[in-house]
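To illustrate the input format used throughout this study, we show a single complete record. The first block contains the structure-token representation of the backbone; no residue identities are included at this stage. The design step must infer an amino acid for every position from geometry alone.
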């Protein structure tokens, strides 16, 4: 269940949005090379020092990127004893969405990627952070799970390290995330992305049946 934002959190979200909007606007109107921290901070009505409390660099501000996170609601929704591939895919998509702040329908962001396609590499760096965070979460929960503790000698996991098993699952889930991003690039809303994930999971299972 979503909790109402505190005054402090709301203020922080407003400052983040103001910095992102200012940086993105400057990049579109004046060019990426003309964007600098001092000007963006001034446009947003904050100090340059405050800027770095929100973004590591001007590119992150332009794209609206932030560090990935796993909150309590995600952990409660994640069922380590359930359909593990599906559960990890849903967790990864939820975490992936945390790196991209702001409005789902942010037209400025789409225009930025069109004008500066090389910035997609910066986003990819954040996706790698997402995969690492999800891997740590899955590995930790799997090691403590009943399905891992009670696996028999005939289990497909028998003899394998828990971190290696978790890594394989996360890497497989990562292929679905790329499918989701490709399918929803022009409409990256939560509804559209989870619908694309469901469709992609069905395709993945069909393909695995044929190749395994």
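Output of the design step:
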């Amino acid at each position: 269940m979503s909790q109402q934002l505190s005054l402090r959190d709301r203020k922080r979200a407003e400052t983040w949005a103001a910095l992102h909007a200012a940086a993105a606007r400057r990049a579109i109107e004046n060019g990426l090379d003309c964007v600098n921290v001092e000007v963006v901070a001034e446009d947003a009505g904050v100090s340059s020092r405050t800027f770095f409390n929100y973004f590591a660099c001007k590119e992150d501000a332009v794209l609206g990127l932030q560090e990935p996170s796993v909150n309590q609601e995600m952990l409660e929704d994640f069922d380590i004893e359930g359909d593990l591939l599906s559960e990890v895919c849903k967790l990864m998509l939820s975490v992936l969405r945390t790196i991209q702040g702001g409005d789902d329908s942010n037209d400025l962001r789409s225009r930025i990627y069109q004008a500066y396609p090389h910035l997609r590499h910066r986003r990819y760096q954040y996706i790698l952070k997402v995969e690492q965070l999800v891997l740590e979460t899955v590995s930790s929960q799997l090691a403590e799970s009943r399905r891992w503790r009670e696996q028999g000698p005939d289990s497909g996991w028998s003899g394998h390290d828990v971190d290696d098993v978790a890594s394989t699952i996360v890497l497989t889930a990562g292929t679905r995330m790329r499918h989701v991003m490709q399918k929803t690039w022009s409409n990256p809303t939560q509804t559209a992305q989870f619908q694309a994930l469901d469709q992609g999971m069905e395709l993945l299972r069909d393909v695995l049946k044929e190749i395994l």
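Structural context for interpreting the output: The CA atoms of residues 109 and 192 lie 17 Å apart. The chain has a mean pLDDT of 90.
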